[in-house]
Predict the 3D structure of the following.
Amino acid sequence: MKSSKHLKKLVIVLFLAALASLSIIAPVIFSDDSTHPISSVHLPTEFNATHAYEDIRTQLEFGYRVPGTIEHNACAEWIRSQLYAVTDEVVTHQFSLPGPQGEPIYCQNILGKLNTNKSNIIIIGAHWDSRAIAEKDTINTTQPIPGANDGGSGVAVTLELARVFYNHREEFNSQIWFLFLDAEDQGGGGIADWYWAEGAREFSSTIHDFFDNSTETFSFFLLLDMVGGHSLQFMDELYSNNDLQQAVFSEGRELGYLFQFPKNPTKRYITDDHIYFRPIMPTLDLIIDFVEGPWTHHHTHEDNLDNIDIDSLKVTGRTVESFMYTYHGKSNWKKNWTVWMIIGSISGVGIVTIVSVLIGIRWKKKRSLGT
Ligand SMILES: [Zn+2]
């Protein structure tokens, strides 16, 4: 009699516990929209910052990647060679812009497509040209800059993400484009009469040539620019889509990168590659405050390997990688996790109910026997 009382109590406690666990996960089950994570659990990331750092070194070893030069062309070949190994398809978009004497300067946007069997396209990209002048330096202001951070870092992080995502390609429900845009950094007198983001303008105006608009749609464009300098701190770039920016910043902060993704970032409008994609899809320019921020080497000869911080490459790469798993993985890891939680909880409630009914019957029998 005493032990059945204890059992009854235990059964009630277990039953309530099972119900409580179900009530906790219920909101999780029914709130699966794409802008809010359904849990703050993060998959482990594999982004290798050493690979990215070496990729910056490689770009700098080609020399100045100024449109119209042999060095520029050699770097394009190298980017393609890296993409062939980790994408389904590599596309080169050639165009030309008039040089100082009106002669054509040949430029190229390079696109690597992963998961071409998926219809929802996410673009991750960077500009790969480097600036022809160093107007913010105190010396040699008409000479080109190394562009380790401005150009090189975005290319390096995008390439390493391509390698990582290739290994996880079956875990994504999206097609991913790795886009390397040319002729971004020659505005403001870099090359006479060129504007900023010429490559992005050319690509976005002919984007219909690169996808099938009867079956494919775009999810967003994530641009990485100056993501590898020391004292990395991203700003609130005001042309960017706010929801997308909030989601990426939250992801970074959840990974512990509180300085890099501050709660009150500097706000500024930046004319960058993403502006030409804004009429087509939500865009985010992940960029530092190069005007007043702590990295002071913008458009100077000091934008070199010495002012790159491998940790900044890691923070950027891992944040984007984690963001992609959280929001744009097949959601299968989360959905599966949720499904198993539901099954577990329901069977828990079921088992506890059956056991309590059985115990109740036994107890009743015993009582009727007068024990
Ligand atoms: Zn620049």
Remarks:
- The longest strand covers residues 104-114.
- Helices lie at 2-29, 49-62, 70-86, 148-167, 198-205, 242-254, 310-328, 332-368.
- Confidence is low (pLDDT under 50) at residues 25-39.
- The radius of gyration is 27 Å.
